[in-house]
């Protein structure tokens, strides 16, 4: 399928924003490494290419041969400097930085239906354009955007912003009018495509096992796999002992309602025993990952003709490299959600008839509550954190904040004299940052009082007000 926009990724945040913005307008987009070569792109034959970068992106990884493919190019943010360098131009010192500026747009198909006006400029450099490249937008005498019209190559020194209709218009001008893309990407089409790809791999009599957690990703993957494999598919839920209150029971009830066979395996004692004495996050993750891997292998070995392992890994996971190496499994790995961003998986859940509550469920780490305990994970500390988590979640739901918040959870850390301290975290996602939410004071008071009563070992309760870059967030 070459009716698409290929996005060369120099920054996960901006590349994903551009891809999701295009897909929301039904234009299919696919994100690849910024080091993708001209030969590889020629083989994929996209209708257009977008370069999306950040201040840390490196100019050396771009294959200048891409400019000779006669495929329209749009470079945004610092990736525009990569494009300009490949065209024979250069960029120098900072002209504008972290300020709003009045941007004046020239006549260009890229800026059709976009009016001149104020725009936030994170950073704009002084540009030196080669003779065949023209300025097509400026601010205060500084070149903000440029184009090589005959080659349909465009560069703009700003990135997409949240709630940015002009940004969407710019993308659609490029994708639809300049590149000639057609709007064919719908959720119905995405689901059909995922099932067709899985069905192609599943020809024959081989059985499949699907690891599920009760979350939206694994549930959607299990539904699609069940539709393809039918009775040849079994879902496995592993209780690691690191789950939230009622999580196992909810998963059993969910899959009974879906009519999908589910095997529930209790590995809590084995996991908690293996975690004894381990304080580093990497060590703890290894214990849980090994448990899940071993259980999938053990269950598959006990079933005849087992051939496939179904994972609920989505496109966002792959872009952030949060997945295990499929080569380590003895089974053939299938990832039915590999083409869908997290937001699209939620949309697919609703399309498949799952309840809104499940579709909007907040992210929960594979390490479970163990990821939110600083230091050693013990049964006593899990009991304390589980109580705090249930109380905090209940208070947030009562206040009607559960849908508005990006994430909310408590973290348990030691306090002097053998006591514990709870850090409450509630954040909104703004661009590439997780910003602390403005929580009602009475909600925090009630939550604190209830935690202190439910868990006497807790000596202090604090609300974490630290802004954190999304990619540096420690607790997910």
How are the SSEs ordered, and which strands pair?
Elements: E1 5-9, H1 12-24, E2 29-33, H2 38-44, E3 48-52, E4 73-76, H3 79-87, E5 90-105, E6 117-128, E7 134-139, E8 142-148, E9 153-156, H4 165-178, H5 187-201, E10 207-212, H6 216-229, E11 233-239, H7 247-258, E12 262-266, H8 268-275, H9 281-301, E13 306-310, H10 315-319, E14 332-334, H11 342-351, H12 356-359, H13 379-398, E15 407-415, E16 419-430, E17 433-436, H14 441-454, E18 458-463, E19 468-469
Parallel strand pairs: 1-2, 1-3, 3-4, 4-9, 10-11, 10-13, 11-12, 13-14, 16-18
Antiparallel strand pairs: 5-6, 5-7, 7-8, 8-9, 15-16, 16-17, 17-19
Helix pairs in contact: 5-6, 5-11, 6-11, 8-9, 13-14
> Please, how many helices?
14
Helix content, binned percent: 25-40%
* Contiguous uncertain segments of 5+ residues: none
Task: Compute the separation of the termini in Å.
Answer: 34 Å
Roughly how many Å is the radius of gyration?
Answer: 25 Å
CATH class identity of the largest domain: Alpha Beta
Number of domains: 3
**What value does the average pLDDT take?**
91
How does CATH name the architecture of the largest domain?
Answer: 3-Layer(aba) Sandwich
Strand adjacency order, main sheet: 2-1-3-4-9-8-7-5-6
């Amino acid at each position: 399928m070459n009716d698409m926009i290929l996005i060369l990724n120099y920054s996960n945040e901006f590349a994903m924003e551009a891809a999701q913005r295009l897909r929301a307008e039904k234009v299919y987009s696919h994100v690849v490494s910024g080091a993708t070569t001209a030969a590889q792109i020629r083989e994929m034959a996209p209708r257009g290419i977008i370069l999306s970068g950040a201040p840390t992106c490196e100019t050396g990884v771009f294959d200048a041969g891409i400019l000779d493919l006669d495929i329209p190019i749009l470079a945004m943010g610092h990736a525009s400097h990569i494009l300009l360098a490949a065209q024979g131009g250069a960029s120098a010192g900072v002209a504008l930085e972290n300020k709003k500026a009045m941007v004046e747009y020239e006549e260009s198909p890229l800026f059709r239906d976009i009016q001149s006006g104020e725009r936030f400029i994170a950073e704009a450099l002084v540009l030196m354009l080669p003779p065949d490249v023209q300025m097509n937008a400026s601010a205060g005498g500084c070149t903000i955007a440029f184009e090589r019209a005959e080659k349909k190559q465009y560069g703009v020194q700003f990135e997409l912003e949240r709630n940015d209709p002009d940004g969407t218009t710019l993308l659609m001008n490029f994708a639809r009018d300049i590149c000639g893309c057609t709007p064919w990407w719908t959720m119905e089409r995405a689901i059909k495509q995922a099932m067709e790809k899985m069905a192609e791999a599943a020809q024959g009599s081989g059985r499949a096992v699907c690891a599920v957690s009760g979350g939206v990703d694994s549930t959607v993957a299990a539904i699609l796999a069940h539709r393809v494999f039918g009775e040849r598919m079994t879902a496995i839920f592993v209780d690691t002992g690191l789950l939230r209150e009622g999580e196992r029971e909810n998963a059993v009830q969910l899959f009974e309602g879906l009519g999908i066979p589910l095997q529930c395996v209790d590995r809590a004692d084995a996991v908690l025993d293996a975690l004894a004495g381990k304080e580093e996050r990497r060590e703890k993750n290894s214990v849980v990952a090994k448990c899940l891997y071993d259980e999938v292998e053990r269950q598959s070995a006990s079933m005849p003709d087992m051939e496939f392992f179904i994972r609920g890994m989505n496109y966002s996971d792959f872009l952030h490299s949060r997945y295990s190496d499929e080569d380590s499994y003895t089974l053939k790995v299938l990832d039915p959600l590999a083409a869908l961003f997290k937001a699209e998986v939620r949309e697919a859940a609703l399309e498949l008839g799952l309840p809104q509550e499940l579709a909007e469920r907040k992210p929960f780490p594979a390490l479970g509550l163990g990821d939110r305990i600083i230091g050693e994970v013990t049964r006593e500390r899990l009991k304390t954190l589980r109580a705090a988590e249930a109380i905090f979640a209940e208070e947030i739901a009562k206040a009607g904040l559960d849908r508005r918040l990006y994430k909310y959870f408590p973290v348990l850390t030691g306090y002097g004299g053998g006591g514990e301290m709870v850090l409450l975290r509630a954040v909104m996602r703004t661009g590439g940052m997780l910003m602390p939410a403005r929580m009602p004071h009475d909600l925090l008071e009630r939550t604190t009082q209830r935690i202190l009563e439910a868990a006497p070992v807790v000596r202090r309760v604090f609300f974490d007000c630290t802004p954190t870059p999304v990619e540096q967030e420690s607790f997910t």
